[in-house]
């Protein structure tokens, strides 16, 4: 079964909790929280304070996508704020193995995110330690971009790698995904689908979530 992870980057921040409650009621599976620092990506979003303010107000697990330099410095703060899974970018981690262990030491799930141009072989010696891999289907930094189709063979290759090794690891995809193209990523092997603008800009969020589930079923 696929899981839907709405990205609050496209929510209305003046009524954030209402938007969170809407996607929870619509049957989404986790909340995708995009953290940007203006250095690793050319945009600034939110920090642990905002994450913490949502924690007691929803049952959805928090999927925190760190698009920041030096993530080790902030991982403990995001865990205290309520992260259930943390994604770090391989491109931002000098000591990727150490960073993964740091996340797991706190008893939460660890994920590594790869930009569109980053090859899968950066995962060769850490894959078995991961709960999820995030294949970026756009260059990170902004919502509302177009899915880069060159990332589709990468999803397929990762799915084969995971199966061949007999591992149980989720494949998340993020960027430019809508009810119209979700089948491209799920048929390639992705099972955790992030969507920001497609969900939050929709005039009928429950219907869009339902459509994503239906069109994404392989
Ligand atoms: C992009 C973020 C995404 C973004 C997705 O840097 O990581 O999570 O919010 O937004 P859409 O679905 O609009 O491409
Ligand atoms: Zn994201």
TrEMBL record:
Q: What's its catalytic activity?
A: D-ribulose 5-phosphate = D-xylulose 5-phosphate
Q: Where does substrate bind?
A: 7, 65, 141-144, 174-176, 196-197
HAMAP family per UniProt: RPE
Gene name, Swiss-Prot/TrEMBL: rpe
The record's Gene Ontology biological-process terms are: pentose catabolic process; pentose-phosphate shunt
- Give, as in the UniProt entry, the pathway in which the protein acts: Carbohydrate degradation
Amino-acid positions noted as binding a divalent metal cation in the UniProt annotation, renumbered to this chain: 32, 34, 65, 174
User: Under the GO molecular function aspect, what terms does this record hold?
Assistant: D-ribulose-phosphate 3-epimerase activity; metal ion binding
Q: How is the cofactor bound?
A: Binds 1 divalent metal cation per subunit.
The annotated active site, in chain numbering, is 34, 174
What does the record give as cofactor? a divalent metal cation; Fe(2+); Zn(2+); Mn(2+)
Under which main EC class is this enzyme filed?
isomerase
Q: According to the UniProt entry, where is the signal peptide?
A: none
Q: What is this protein called?
A: Ribulose-phosphate 3-epimerase
List, alphabetically, the NCBIfam families matched: PRK05581.1-4, rpe
What keywords is this UniProt entry annotated with? Carbohydrate metabolism, Cobalt, Isomerase, Manganese, Metal-binding, Zinc
Q: Does the keyword Protease apply?
A: no
| CDD domains for this protein | RPE
Q: Which GO terms describe its cellular component?
A: cytoplasm
The record's Gene3D superfamilies line, in alphabetical order, gives: Aldolase class I
């Amino acid at each position: 079964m696929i899981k839907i992870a709405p990205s609050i980057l496209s929510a209305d921040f003046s009524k954030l909790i209402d938007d969170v409650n809407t996607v929870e009621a619509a049957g989404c599976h986790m909340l995708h929280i995009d953290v940007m620092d203006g250095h690793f990506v050319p945009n600034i979003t939110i920090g642990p304070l905002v994450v913490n303010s949502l924690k007691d107000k929803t049952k959805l697990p928090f999927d925190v996508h760190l698009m920041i330099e030096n993530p080790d410095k902030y991982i403990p703060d995001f865990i205290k704020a309520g992260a259930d899974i943390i994604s770090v970018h391989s491109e931002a981690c000098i000591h990727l193995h150490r960073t993964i262990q740091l996340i797991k030491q706190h008893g939460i799930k660890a994920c590594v995110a790869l930009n569109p141009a980053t090859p899968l072989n950066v995962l060769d010696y850490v894959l078995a330690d991961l709960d999820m891999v995030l294949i970026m289907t756009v260059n990170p930094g902004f919502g509302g971009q177009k899915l880069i189709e060159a990332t589709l063979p990468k999803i397929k290759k990762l799915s084969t790698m995971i199966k061949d090794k007999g591992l149980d690891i989720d494949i998340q995809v993020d960027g430019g995904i809508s009810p119209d193209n979700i089948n491209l990523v799920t048929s390639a092997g992705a099972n955790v689908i992030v969507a920001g603008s497609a969900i939050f800009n929709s005039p009928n969020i429950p219907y869009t979530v339902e459509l994503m589930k239906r069109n994404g079923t392989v």
